[in-house]
Amino acid sequence: MMKEPHSDLCSSYIKIFVVVSCYWIVSITTVFVNKALLSSDSVALEAPLSITWFQCIVSFTICFTLSQTNGIPGIFKFPKGTPWNIDIVRKVIPLSIMFTLMIATNNLCLKYVGVPFYYVGRSLTTVFNVFLSWLLLRQTTSLKCIMCCGFIIFGFYLGVDQESLLGSFSLLGTIYGVIGSLMLSLYSIYTKKVLPSVNQEVWLLSFYNNAYSIILFLPLILMNGELNVLWNYRNFDSTYFWFQMIIGGLCGFAIGFFTSLQIKVTSPLTHNISGTAKACAQTVLATQWYNESKNILWWTSNVIVLASSALYARFKQVEMEENSKKPQPEEEKSLV
Asked: Where is the chain membrane-spanning (predicted)?
């Protein structure tokens, strides 16, 4: 019997809801765990890139184990593939470079700024999406969407200004946040292009990204001067230290998987908007968790960024619906 369209639509919505919910839970948990790893006195390891590198090792180990066992019997089958195929390396390595820089700058930003400001510090992803679409693809953007980007930039500036007045502003952390926003934008756009090269398999993409990142992180660790820090660190024999590191690695694996999965079942734009909305909830939780008091203008900056991002998403959705109704020339249809 043929399934009813309504039933298929409900199934799609349920799937998207579950994926987005998992992304929110894992992402928020990962931020708090990483903040503890990067800044807490219990760890006290001033080597943020080495911590991120270890998380990639944990993720790679999980993927490698699953690839050898063909997944978990009775639950799911891990797709076959190897990251050491020269053709795969050539196709995926550009995305892996973006992935490496994205998670590196995200953790560096998180090290130097507080969790409440982490959202605003990385709120320029939508702006970069518009700019890169024009720069790389020569795609124009409507005036309404450009105005939304202007408000996002204003909200970002206001947040930076208020963070400075409150005495908790970090210029270095903010710079890393801006770079992280740029890398996230590039990664989201390029993921859609690379997924067909791995047969639309998110597991394989996560496997390959982490495999290549283990190598790509080594020169970054050297340039950041972390070898001397690791050599002089005295808590490598601590069970609690390794417990925290492994938990952080598991979270790193989960966020990488659910980020790619959310992009796959939605779109790069929806992923960015979901990340913005998630970060708003994360900000509220963080202020309560760390007992931080913020003024009205600080909260206003968060509201401006969130509302502008939501309006941008709505305007883009309407534009795409209108464009889909326009008749296409035969030559464009053949290209599609």
From this structure: 12-32, 52-76, 88-105, 117-136, 143-160, 166-190, 202-221, 241-261
